[in-house]
């Protein structure tokens, strides 16, 4: 697959990715190389990855606990301290080998350690491949509030190797699928149509879909790196999705993945689009049917809704105290900065439960 140039770096694929990584190690005079993994990628991905490195530079591995609940300042502190204890300096390189938690947190750690060291993202989950690792957004959660602390700072490069997906459980694959569905809904009707039926999916088709998803995200961020305009469309389904995810992070006995929450958020955003921006009823029905086919329905009780809606006040797209949504007028025709009447937000949850 052909490399995809982005604003400040390039996304490389499969064999070329490792060649470019080794070229980078050979030409940049890094003092040390640090590889950030979590407890899952330490076991499932690191043994495949280490033999592909061709360098005499000292390599150190730093491990964090896996899971969104560990994407916090305490974990960052542990990684910063490990870097310091192991002699990292401003010429060190951090390689983030993992899913969205590792690439988000690792990018933030690298961007702030000694005012910034270079980092490379090697995403190992579908969600990280098509979304989290690309575009320079780094960050951590503040309590149960998603991605409240962070900076936009691009990785030196992003390397995509779909063979890492063989290590993923089915629910993690579905989590990434939500972002791919979103890319079709906001930017490419033909891509959305391909995503509506994956019953005949094979590895070649999956690689092509991943590639197109990365292309879509890259086209958007290349036009708007700092989210002043069109990049906001990437938040379709995320306003309510993040609030739902944050709500479930508060529930110690339940776990909802990012993609599962965003899937629910997209159905609700489509309902709001039908009510406010003339999104066609037949498209709303198809969108709801497709997403529920892959994700089912979250058990959001009526008594949970006020808390979820209260969490909307922390959304990063808010401006001047107003909660702003991304809606659709047609598939691949998004509208940004849409204000929503509170009564319609409650109706969206009712629609989601009943559709």
UniProtKB/TrEMBL annotation:
<keyword id="KW-0479">Metal-binding</keyword>
<dbReference type="InterPro" id="IPR056179">
    <property type="entry name" value="DHQS_C"/>
</dbReference>
<dbReference type="InterPro" id="IPR016037">
    <property type="entry name" value="DHQ_synth_AroB"/>
</dbReference>
<protein>
    <recommendedName>
        <fullName>3-dehydroquinate synthase</fullName>
        <ecNumber>4.2.3.4</ecNumber>
    </recommendedName>
</protein>
<dbReference type="InterPro" id="IPR030960">
    <property type="entry name" value="DHQS/DOIS_N"/>
</dbReference>
<dbReference type="GO" id="GO:0003856">
    <property type="term" value="F:3-dehydroquinate synthase activity"/>
</dbReference>
<keyword id="KW-0547">Nucleotide-binding</keyword>
<dbReference type="InterPro" id="IPR030963">
    <property type="entry name" value="DHQ_synth_fam"/>
</dbReference>
<dbReference type="Pfam" id="PF01761">
    <property type="entry name" value="DHQ_synthase"/>
</dbReference>
<keyword id="KW-0520">NAD</keyword>
<dbReference type="Pfam" id="PF24621">
    <property type="entry name" value="DHQS_C"/>
</dbReference>
<keyword id="KW-0456">Lyase</keyword>
<feature type="domain" description="3-dehydroquinate synthase C-terminal">
    <location>
        <begin position="176"/>
        <end position="318"/>
    </location>
</feature>
<dbReference type="InterPro" id="IPR050071">
    <property type="entry name" value="Dehydroquinate_synthase"/>
</dbReference>
<keyword id="KW-0862">Zinc</keyword>
<feature type="domain" description="3-dehydroquinate synthase N-terminal">
    <location>
        <begin position="62"/>
        <end position="174"/>
    </location>
</feature>
<keyword id="KW-0170">Cobalt</keyword>
<comment type="function">
    <text>Catalyzes the conversion of 3-deoxy-D-arabino-heptulosonate 7-phosphate (DAHP) to dehydroquinate (DHQ).</text>
</comment>
């Amino acid at each position: 697959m052909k490399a995809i140039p982005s604003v400040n770096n390039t996304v490389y694929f499969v064999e070329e990715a490792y060649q470019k990584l080794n070229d980078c190690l050979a030409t940049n005079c890094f003092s040390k190389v640090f590889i950030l993994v979590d407890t899952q990628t330490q076991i499932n991905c690191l043994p495949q990855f280490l033999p592909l490195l061709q360098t005499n530079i000292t390599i150190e591995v730093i491990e964090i606990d896996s899971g969104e609940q560990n994407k916090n300042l305490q974990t960052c502190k542990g990684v910063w301290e490990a870097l310091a204890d192991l002699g990292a300096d401003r010429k060190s390189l951090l390689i983030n080998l993992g899913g969205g938690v590792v690439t988000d947190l690792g990018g933030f750690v690298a961007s702030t350690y000694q005012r910034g060291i270079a980092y490379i993202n090697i995403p190992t989950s579908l969600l990280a491949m098509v979304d989290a690792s690309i575009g320079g957004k780094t960050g951590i959660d503040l309590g149960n509030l998603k991605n409240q602390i962070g900076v936009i700072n691009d990785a030196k490069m992003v390397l995509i190797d779909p063979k890492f997906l063989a290590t993923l459980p089915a629910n993690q694959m579905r989590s990434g699928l939500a972002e791919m569905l979103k890319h079709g809904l906001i930017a490419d009707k033909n891509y959305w149509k391909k995503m509506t039926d994956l019953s005949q999916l094979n590895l070649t088709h999956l690689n092509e879909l991943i590639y197109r998803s990365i292309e879509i995200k890259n086209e958007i961020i290349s036009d708007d790196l700092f989210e002043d305009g069109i990049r906001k469309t990437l938040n379709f389904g995320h306003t309510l999705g993040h609030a739902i995810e944050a709500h479930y992070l508060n529930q110690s006995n339940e776990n909802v993945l990012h993609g599962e929450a965003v899937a629910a958020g997209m159905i609700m955003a489509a309902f709001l689009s039908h009510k406010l921006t003339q999104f066609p009823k037949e498209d709303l029905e198809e969108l709801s049917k497709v997403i529920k086919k892959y994700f089912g329905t979250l058990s959001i009780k009526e008594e949970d809704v006020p808390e979820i809606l209260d969490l909307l006040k922390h959304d990063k797209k808010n401006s001047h105290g107003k909660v702003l949504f991304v809606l659709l007028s047609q598939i691949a025709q998004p509208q940004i900065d849409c204000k929503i009447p509170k009564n319609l937000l409650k109706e969206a949850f009712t629609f989601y439960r009943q559709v």
